[in-house]
Amino acid sequence: MTKKTICIPFAFLFALTLVGCGDAGTKTTPVRITITQKGSPLEGAAVTMVSADGNSAGAATNAAGVAEMELTGASKKGVLPGEYTVAVRKWEIKVTPAPTEESPDNTRS
Protein backbone atom coordinates (compact mmCIF):
# COMPACT_ATOMS: atom_id res chain seq x y z
CA MET A 1 0.00 0.00 0.00
CA THR A 2 1.30 3.41 -0.95
CA LYS A 3 0.24 6.32 1.20
CA LYS A 4 0.48 9.86 -0.09
CA THR A 5 -0.05 12.82 2.19
CA ILE A 6 -0.78 16.24 0.78
CA CYS A 7 -0.38 19.21 3.06
CA ILE A 8 -1.52 22.43 1.53
CA PRO A 9 1.23 24.96 2.29
CA PHE A 10 1.41 28.71 1.77
CA ALA A 11 -1.05 31.23 3.16
CA PHE A 12 -3.40 28.64 4.59
CA LEU A 13 -1.40 29.19 7.74
CA PHE A 14 -2.15 32.78 8.54
CA ALA A 15 -3.38 35.04 11.29
CA LEU A 16 -7.02 36.01 10.99
CA THR A 17 -8.62 38.72 13.06
CA LEU A 18 -12.33 38.42 13.69
CA VAL A 19 -14.43 41.27 14.96
CA GLY A 20 -17.44 40.48 17.11
CA CYS A 21 -19.89 42.18 19.39
CA GLY A 22 -20.86 41.50 22.96
CA ASP A 23 -19.33 39.17 25.50
CA ALA A 24 -16.55 37.13 23.89
CA GLY A 25 -17.22 34.31 26.37
CA THR A 26 -20.69 33.53 25.05
CA LYS A 27 -21.25 35.04 21.61
CA THR A 28 -19.78 33.53 18.51
CA THR A 29 -19.01 35.12 15.18
CA PRO A 30 -20.07 33.14 12.10
CA VAL A 31 -17.06 32.19 9.97
CA ARG A 32 -17.16 30.62 6.51
CA ILE A 33 -13.85 29.90 4.85
CA THR A 34 -13.48 28.98 1.17
CA ILE A 35 -10.43 26.89 0.32
CA THR A 36 -9.18 26.51 -3.23
CA GLN A 37 -6.17 24.79 -4.73
CA LYS A 38 -4.97 25.97 -8.13
CA GLY A 39 -8.24 27.87 -8.53
CA SER A 40 -10.52 24.89 -7.87
CA PRO A 41 -12.54 24.21 -4.68
CA LEU A 42 -10.79 21.79 -2.34
CA GLU A 43 -13.30 19.24 -1.03
CA GLY A 44 -12.66 17.17 2.09
CA ALA A 45 -9.96 19.35 3.65
CA ALA A 46 -9.77 19.70 7.44
CA VAL A 47 -9.73 23.36 8.53
CA THR A 48 -8.72 24.24 12.09
CA MET A 49 -8.50 27.60 13.84
CA VAL A 50 -6.64 28.07 17.15
CA SER A 51 -6.37 31.29 19.14
CA ALA A 52 -3.52 32.32 21.43
CA ASP A 53 -5.79 31.82 24.47
CA GLY A 54 -6.67 28.25 23.48
CA ASN A 55 -10.04 28.64 21.77
CA SER A 56 -10.39 26.44 18.72
CA ALA A 57 -12.82 25.67 15.93
CA GLY A 58 -12.88 23.22 13.08
CA ALA A 59 -14.76 22.07 10.02
CA ALA A 60 -14.36 20.11 6.80
CA THR A 61 -14.74 21.67 3.38
CA ASN A 62 -17.69 20.68 1.20
CA ALA A 63 -17.76 20.17 -2.58
CA ALA A 64 -17.64 23.96 -3.06
CA GLY A 65 -14.52 24.20 -0.84
CA VAL A 66 -16.49 25.94 1.93
CA ALA A 67 -16.01 25.19 5.64
CA GLU A 68 -18.46 26.62 8.20
CA MET A 69 -16.47 26.79 11.40
CA GLU A 70 -17.81 25.33 14.65
CA LEU A 71 -16.41 25.73 18.18
CA THR A 72 -14.51 22.65 19.28
CA GLY A 73 -16.40 20.69 21.91
CA ALA A 74 -19.34 23.10 22.01
CA SER A 75 -21.46 22.11 18.98
CA LYS A 76 -21.88 25.81 18.37
CA LYS A 77 -21.53 27.40 14.92
CA GLY A 78 -18.92 30.15 14.58
CA VAL A 79 -15.90 31.11 16.65
CA LEU A 80 -15.23 33.37 19.60
CA PRO A 81 -13.95 36.79 18.50
CA GLY A 82 -10.17 37.08 18.48
CA GLU A 83 -7.02 36.44 16.49
CA TYR A 84 -6.56 32.92 15.14
CA THR A 85 -3.99 30.83 13.36
CA VAL A 86 -5.64 28.81 10.58
CA ALA A 87 -4.37 25.50 9.23
CA VAL A 88 -5.70 23.47 6.31
CA ARG A 89 -4.86 19.80 5.78
CA LYS A 90 -5.96 17.23 3.27
CA TRP A 91 -4.83 13.67 3.02
CA GLU A 92 -5.20 11.46 0.00
CA ILE A 93 -4.50 7.79 0.34
CA LYS A 94 -3.91 5.93 -2.87
CA VAL A 95 -3.68 2.18 -2.76
CA THR A 96 -1.80 0.41 -5.50
CA PRO A 97 -2.04 -3.35 -5.81
CA ALA A 98 1.07 -5.30 -4.91
CA PRO A 99 2.80 -6.84 -7.92
CA THR A 100 2.17 -10.54 -8.34
CA GLU A 101 4.66 -13.02 -9.58
CA GLU A 102 3.53 -16.00 -11.51
CA SER A 103 5.44 -18.95 -10.36
CA PRO A 104 6.31 -21.66 -12.93
CA ASP A 105 4.84 -24.15 -10.43
CA ASN A 106 1.40 -22.51 -10.75
CA THR A 107 1.12 -22.59 -14.52
CA ARG A 108 -0.66 -25.37 -16.33
CA SER A 109 0.20 -26.70 -19.73
Write a structural description.
There is one protein chain. The protein has 109 residues and is an all-beta fold. It has one domain. Helices cover 0% and strands 40% of the residues. It is built from no helices and 11 strands. It has strands at residues 4-6, 14-18, 32-34, 36-37, 40-41, 46-51, 56-60, 66-68, 70-71, 76-77, 82-92. The strands form 3 sheets. Strands 1, 2, 6, 7, 9, 10 and 11 form a 7-stranded antiparallel sheet that branches. It has a two-stranded antiparallel ribbon with strand order 3-8. A two-stranded antiparallel ribbon has the order 4-5. A hairpin with a 2-residue loop joins strand 4 (36-37) and strand 5 (40-41). The protein is elongated, with a radius of gyration of 21 Å.
**Average residue-wise pLDDT:** 78
Unreliable residue runs: 1-25
Helix content: under 10%
From the helix content, strand content and strand pairing, which structural class follows? mainly beta
Number of domains: 1
Q: Tell me the number of strands.
A: 11
> Given the C-alpha coordinates, what overall shape results?
elongated
Strand content: 35-45%
Q: How many helical stretches? A: 0
Order of helices and strands: EEEEEEEEEEE
Distance between the termini: 33 Å
Largest sheet: 7 strands, antiparallel
